[in-house]
Amino acid sequence: MRKRPVIVAALLILIGGVGFAAKHVYDPSEPAAASVPPPAVPVVAGEVASHDVPIYLRGVGTVIAYNNVVVHSLISGPITKIAFTQGQTVKKGDLLAQIDPDPYQAEIDQIIATRDRDQAQLVNAQANLDRYTPLLAKGFATSQLVATQKAQVIQLQATIKADEALLQAAQINLSYSRLTSPIDGVTGIRQIDEGNIIHPTDTFGLVDVAQVQPISLIFTLPEDTLPQIQRQMAKGPLTVFAYSQDDKTKLDEGKLLLVDNQIVQTTGTVRLRATFPNARNQLWPGALVNARLLLDTRTGGLTIAGSAVQQGPNGSYVYVIAPDGTAQMRPVTVAQLSGGQALIDSGLKANETVVVDGQYRLVQGSRVQVLVGKAADEAALQSAVQQAIP
Prior knowledge:
Strand content: 35-45%
Structural class: alpha+beta
Helix content: 25-40%
Number of strands: 20
Distance between the termini: 80 Å
Number of helices: 5
Radius of gyration: 46 Å
Shape: elongated
Largest sheet: 6 strands, antiparallel, barrel
């Protein structure tokens, strides 16, 4: 009978302890601690610009001489004079080398002597014919004699024509003793020295002359760009820019000359040839350069810094800074990347502000702090270093 009061007392103590603990765990009269918002992310920002944007097709090409000629001799003989220095700029008709002309001059003298003899014989034969013709009318000469004399005159006339042809050929051979430049250009490495005998069959000839003003560039583009190129060529000549291999130095500006008449099936590309004035000789045969074919110019195109464009699982996107200072992820369509600038087809409007550096710390809705001046430069450098670390 005494156990029941003890149990009741224990239950009262337990209930009181629970109530005391609950009061200390949650007391509505005590204020709750305020949540601290995350700090703003420092970023570098830029505006979406609207201006005329050139549309380029880019390829890699090789510079070739506009014309390239290997100077061969058409006659054989010893070289008595070299009249150029290797690497010299020459004009068409400039003397490059002299072959000994004496044997060819002697041949001319011999042919002239033969021609003069034949001409003297013709004069005599014609005089005899003139004497025999009146005698035939008077009956003092036979018709056979007159006919024979006429034949001799005709034969001598033909002989003189042959002599003239031989003389002309000999004079041409004599002219070949002067090896001259067939084009304006630059001479290469000389293949034969003075005193050696040169032959028409020599493989490398005397020297090669390359025309470098103007000069040509052969470059390739994907075959699927051919319809665009043909449409633009129908409107007028297209401009081509030649850049150095690092794509930083503009070497020259020229015009598209032609599109090759067939596709290279092994590579799926089409070859194109452009010509450049090359006034400063910055393009040289054999050089590998980058080619930019100016296809069109987009009026009012939207551009941003290329670093603003990020790649995600769903394609390209940028962070746009909203008026409330938060970063909003927005998908974009990029038409081209050129000179560090991205041409945007869709997704942005002119004068919007986008994050161009510091995106690696951003998520949708992050608050941002836009850095300017020196702070922006330092942030961009730090971001570049951090992104380079694997």
